[in-house]
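Reproducibility note. Readers wishing to regenerate the assembly model reported in the main text can use the exact inputs given here. Chain order matters: entities are listed in the order in which they were concatenated for prediction.
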Amino acid sequence: DAGITQSPRHKVTETGTPVTLRCHQTENHRYMYWYRQDPGHGLRLIHYSYGVKDTDKGEVSDGYSVSRSKTEDFLLTLESATSSQTSVYFCAISGIAGGRGDTQYFGPGTRLTVL
Amino acid sequence: GESVGLHLPTLSVQEGDNSIINCAYSNSASDYFIWYKQESGKGPQFIIDIRSNMDKRQGQRVTVLLNKTVKHLSLQIAATQPGDSAVYFCAVWAGGTSYGKLTFGQGTILTVHP
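Running the prediction on these inputs yields the following structure tokens for the assembly.
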């Protein structure tokens, strides 16, 4: 998985609770991404980061926030989890050279269930 | 916006056969294309990529063909093995001057029968 770890790998939580997922990379790649994967929707981009403290929204960012205080760590936070956020979450990294047109490499995923 | 589709949601082949998985895209400005393999319970794994200045690229047992005229790409797997059973996604990077994004297809389920 290209030196990418995600934690936790599985989590069950209740509606309304905050949840933070962590992505850690050892590749020193500049770009990091959070996706969610749902049946019938494929992979959809939540947020991405193009450097330390530099982040931007993806196509499904509502209800999610991110932070990147170090090159190697990208955190995804659900401030108040809802059942619609039950999904599998993947972190990806790319690009020592830059994000556009670079291959993205994925982590193993976190399966989140919101009851 | 970009839409990415797959012609067949499932594909079943016999071990040793060649497999062809297809993908259509809509944005003629798309300039980078990737194929991923995803096994059950794992993250997508990079297989092969191709840029818009190429029509064909080969890897180990895999070939990607790009037809920009009809906005179609395909992944060919030679001598398919049971270990090739997985979901295969195409992903397309939209062109443009601003930061683009990777758009993923829904995936084709490839099943290889021994």
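We highlight two features of this model. The interface with chain A takes residues 31-32, 34, 36, 41-46, 49, 51, 89, 91, 93, 99-102, 104-107 of chain B (CB under 8 Å). The first strand of chain B starts at residue 4 and ends at 5.
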